[in-house]
Amino acid sequence: MRYYICDACKFQFVRCGEVTQCPDCGKEAVRIATEEEIIDFERIKQELKWK
Prior knowledge:
By secondary structure, this protein is α+β, with helices and mostly antiparallel strands. The protein has one helix and three strands. A three-stranded antiparallel sheet has the order 2-1-3, covered by helices on one side. Strand 1 and strand 2 form a beta hairpin. The longest helix has 13 residues, at 35-47. The chain starts with a strand and ends with a helix.
């Protein structure tokens, strides 16, 4: 499982395998998230009680 972020729309998401296109905006501006972005994503997920 990898954490990704779209540089175009800032959408953060998790997927298994490689991703080249953002599932939210459709642009090809996706990259692997930094450690700081992953921590922020997990913090927000816990605040929303999302699993």
